[in-house]
């Protein structure tokens, strides 16, 4: 593990912040311990961060609101591990659908958190290089479609609007962030599942099939999401990001 990896820990409890900072620093990480989303944004403006550990139950602007704003900002590619209340499955599911890379339920051991951080950093470095996405902008245009990343709608010709569920949105967003680059099934699985995936999990193939139907793609000769045999999938269209729906 690179000793220069910079971890931002966001928790309003100073005792937890100090504990996590000490444990992570012992493991060779550089740590910024922060009490709020505002402090996090100030830190991001000053120095690059490799991963964010984010408590969901923050006063004022909570962790899910911070997550949502980060995923629609120039810092969208930073991996995020959520700290959630034990048994709060709703926050976990919403967090993963909004783009969290993993979650750790409270109470937890520092050793478990360190293991999750290392796993997420390892997965993040597996991702294809692609081009740096302009994620601060709201609309992605590809072929005849636009994706509205705020409303999670596919916008087609003649005013057609197609709502997407969390799995469909996550898959399409990932492909749009890496257009015209092959992404493997394993890369898609670890990104969408938020954890190390089962090598025999075929759920990604079903998700691709369903998304192709949403796009009106021909199953035998798709124009949008093409299968690359023995490798994975590729979004075959160019992607253009903008603040408005345009031609």
From TrEMBL:
DNA-binding residues (ranges): 137-237
Modified residues (4-aspartylphosphate): 55
Occurrences of domain Response regulatory (ranges): 6-121
UniProt keyword terms in alphabetical order: DNA-binding, Phosphoprotein, Transcription, Transcription regulation, Two-component regulatory system
Domain of life of the organism encoding this protein: Bacteria
UniProt domain OmpR/PhoB-type: residue ranges: 137-237
Cross-referenced CDD domains: trans_reg_C
Gene3D superfamilies named among the record's database cross-references: 3.40.50.2300, 6.10.250.690, Winged helix-like DNA-binding domain superfamily/Winged helix DNA-binding domain
PANTHER family: DNA-BINDING DUAL TRANSCRIPTIONAL REGULATOR OMPR, REGULATOR OF RPOS
Protein name: Response regulator
Organism: Ottowia flava
Upper lineage: Bacteria, Pseudomonadati, Pseudomonadota, Betaproteobacteria, Burkholderiales
């Amino acid at each position: 593990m690179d000793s220069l990896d910079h971890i931002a820990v966001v928790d309003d409890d100073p005792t937890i912040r100090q504990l996590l900072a000490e444990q992570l620093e012992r493991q060779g990480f550089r740590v910024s311990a922060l009490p709020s989303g505002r402090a996090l944004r100030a830190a991001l403006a000053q120095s690059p961060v490799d991963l964010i550990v984010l408590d969901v139950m923050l006063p004022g602007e909570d962790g899910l609101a911070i997550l949502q704003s980060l995923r629609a900002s120039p810092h969208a590619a930073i991996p995020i591990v959520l700290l959630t209340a034990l048994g709060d499955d709703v926050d976990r599911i919403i967090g993963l659908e909004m783009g969290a890379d993993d979650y750790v339920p409270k109470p937890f051991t520092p050793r478990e958190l360190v293991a999750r951080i290392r796993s997420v950093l390892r997965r993040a470095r597996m991702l294809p290089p692609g081009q740096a996405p302009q994620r601060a902008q709201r609309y992605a245009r590809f072929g005849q479609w636009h994706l509205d990343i705020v409303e999670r709608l596919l916008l087609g010709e003649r005013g057609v609007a197609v709502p997407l569920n969390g799995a469909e949105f996550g898959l399409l967003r990932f492909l749009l962030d890496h257009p015209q680059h092959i992404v493997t099934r394993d890369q898609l699985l670890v990104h969408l599942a938020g954890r190390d995936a089962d090598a025999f999990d075929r759920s990604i193939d079903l998700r691709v099939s369903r998304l192709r139907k949403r796009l009106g793609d021909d199953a035998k000769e798709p124009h949008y999401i093409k299968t690359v045999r023995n490798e994975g999938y590729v979004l075959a269209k160019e992607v253009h990001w903008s603040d408005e729906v345009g031609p």
